[in-house]
Write a structure and sequence with these properties.
- By secondary structure, the chain is of the alpha+beta class.
- Helix content is 21%, strand content 26%.
- The chain contains 12 helices and 27 strands.
- The strands form 6 sheets. It has an 8-stranded mixed sheet with strand order 9-10-8-11-13-23-24-27, sandwiched between helices.
- Strand 3 and strand 4 (97-103) form a beta hairpin.
- Helix 10 (223-235) packs parallel to helix 11 (257-270).
- It is globular.
- The N and C termini lie far apart (52 Å).
- The relative contact order is 0.16.
């Protein structure tokens, strides 16, 4: 049914599915996979996956959805029989997690068989870049050319680029942009060179800044893959890694949660130096303490204003809500609504929060200029929201009244990550250049200063004629090692 928000009257929308099962799903994304399949078939499922960077599998006409579980569940005696009962299979494991593949039409059966267990879709993530011959301008801007002339290069150093895809990697190797001994590993089961060319562009910047490194290109798509990539770093004695990817809703951006834990453990246990893009979400972020001056259980983004506007015309709207009750059994239950210019609720996320899931909601919706402008509304559906700290992120549209502070996603918030923001290369030579307006800022939600450094973006590579975004600032900060000694140097500026 369609429910409109009328002036002066709050109508709490309960948009029921045909039998309510998808809203019983303990994960908002899995619920949307199921509903999209019912509404639009396999193509609807593909659309949901594309907007969140989730890798589907397709076999003999079946679309298989990845489901992440903790390894504790995978080790239980009845697990194999329950999995078979749900018509699903195990695809990959890491030290802490396992990835299952569930035919989308059997998600409902899977939820029934594993009722009361912790399971979820992969955390949404995206490249920390805008757009993407051929020597990066960062080399001269940072003075790296002088160091290279003095034999301070990457010879003898192993560097891994951990990214979402390396399309065109073979071509860049044959063109001489990347070394012929480049190692590539796919942890996703979808092939290294499928999907985005983002990792290839990042790798080009690494080699421009530190020629001579032994390059490892590792493709990941979820927490299972990321943890296995971190294990790969330890197994092959790789002590430098770049990760220009931003993950949302995995924690409350305080250095905890599974994505941050992987980076923190890699740094602490294996000594890996991680350079991580701070992200490009300064205008696509809002954070604040719960405010409800009129007592109607609707969040006020500022006193008296219960709707947060969206700007821009990206083809799809992706919204992510979470709040500071990770690890809490008795969570507040918040709902997220997208409202068009007529006041009609066009999409919602109404997962019932419990001890089995995260305090988060998310929405995906196809943008229509005839319905714009859109607004966001957050409503309490159960429990108390008093004192909550609330965060919203968008992937493709800016917020009116955006809050740049604390706009880093994970793992830029990890204690084991060296977070890097962006300054336009055209301003780099100034004595006090301003950070890019879109470059995500700190502090973390637990009060730590981030990012640690800024570096140029808007630079060039063969993959991206103009490589804008913190994705391409991050590899500029890679340490380079002189062959005759162990001294390292960072070619960037501290944040002031």
């Amino acid at each position: 049914m369609i429910i409109k928000i009328r002036a002066g009257l709050v109508i709490l929308a309960v948009l029921l599915l045909s039998n309510g099962v998808a809203h019983a799903m303990p994960d908002a994304i899995l619920a949307q996979f199921l509903q999209s399949y019912r509404d639009h078939g396999n193509e609807g499922v593909r659309d949901v996956a594309r907007g969140r960077g989730i890798n589907l599998r397709e076999e003999e006409g079946d679309v298989l959805v990845p489901v992440i579980i903790d390894r504790q569940l995978q080790r239980t005696p009845a697990f194999a029989s329950r999995l078979a009962q749900a018509g699903s299979r195990q695809d990959a494991v890491s030290r802490s997690f396992a990835r299952l593949l569930v035919p989308v039409e059997k998600l409902e059966a899977f939820a029934t068989v594993f009722r009361g267990e912790r399971f979820r879709a992969p955390y949404p993530h995206r490249e920390a870049s805008g757009m993407g011959p051929v020597l990066s301008e960062s080399v001269a801007l940072t003075g790296a050319d002088g160091y290279q002339a003095g034999n301070l290069t990457g010879n003898g150093v192993k560097v891994a680029v951990i990214d979402l895809g390396f399309s065109g990697l073979s071509k860049r190797i044959s063109d001489g942009e990347l070394p012929p001994d480049t190692v590539s590993v796919d942890f996703t089961g979808t092939s290294v060179e499928s999907g985005t060319k983002h990792g290839t562009g990042v790798a080009e910047h690494v080699l421009d800044m530190a020629p001579g490194v032994e390059l490892h290109c590792l493709k990941v798509g979820d927490s299972v893959d990321l943890q296995n990539a971190a294990e790969y770093l330890a197994d092959y004695n790789i002590d430098i890694a770049n990760h220009s990817v931003s993950w949302v809703n995995a924690s409350y951006y305080d250095g905890t949660g599974p994505i941050n834990a992987i980076v923190n453990d890699s740094r602490t246990s294996d000594g890996v130096f991680w350079t991580v893009a701070s992200g490009n979400s300064a205008k696509e972020h809002w954070r604040g303490t719960w405010l409800d001056t009129d007592g109607d259980n609707v969040l006020e983004f500022e006193a008296g204003d219960e709707e947060l506007g969206l700007t821009g015309s990206g083809s799809s709207i992706h919204l992510f809500l979470n709040w500071n009750q990770y690890g809490v059994n008795n969570k507040a239950d918040l709902n997220l609504y997208l409202i068009d210019k007529a006041g009609t609720i066009v999409e919602s996320s109404t997962t019932n929060q419990s001890r089995f899931n995260n305090p988060s909601e998310e929405i995906a919706y196809s943008y229509s200029s005839s319905q714009a402008p859109y607004h966001v509304r957050v409503v309490v559906a159960g429990g108390s929201a008093s004192g909550l700290d609330v965060t919203l992120f968008s992937f493709n549209h800016a917020f009116d009244g955006s809050v740049a502070s604390s706009s880093q996603m994970d793992p830029a918030n990890a204690t084991g990550a060296f977070s890097v923001g962006a300054v336009s290369r055209s301003n780099w030579q100034k004595s006090s250049p301003s950070i890019r307006s879109y470059s995500s800022r700190g502090p973390t939600t637990d009060g730590r200063t981030k990012p640690e450094l800024v570096a140029p973006d808007g630079t060039s590579s063969a993959a991206y004629p103009t490589a804008s975004g913190t994705s391409f600032s991050s590899p500029t900060v890679l340490p380079v090692q002189r062959r005759c000694c162990s001294r390292r140097i960072l070619l960037a500026r501290p944040v002031t």
